[in-house]
Amino acid sequence: MTRRIGNGDRSPLPRRQAGQRRGGRLEGTRFHDLRHTCVTLLLNLEVPPRVVREIVGHSDIGVTMTIYAHAPPDDKRRAPGKLGDALG
Q1: Can you state the angle between helices 31-44 and 49-56, rounded to 10 degrees?
Q2: What is the pLDDT of residues 46-60, one digit of tens each?
Q3: Which contiguous run of DSSP H or E holds residue 14?
C-alpha cells in the first residue's frame, strides 16, 4: 500500500521516515529514485532479470526490462566485437 506524501511522491514510507529522509543525505530523493537505482544496479551486476522482477514485484518481465535495463556505453561499444567474434 502506498500513500501520497509531501509533493505528491507515492511512497510506502510512513511520514516519519520521509521526515528522516529530509534530514539526511537523501534530501530531495524520492523512494522511487532509490528503487530505480537498486534495480539498475542489480541488473548491472548481472542478477537474472526474472529474479529482479520478483524482487520489485513486477507482473511482467517487460516492465522491468523496459524501464530499468539501460545499456551502458561500454556494453554498446563491445557488442559489435562480440558479434564479430561469434561469427568468426
Answers
A1: 160
A2: 899 999 999 989 999
A3: none
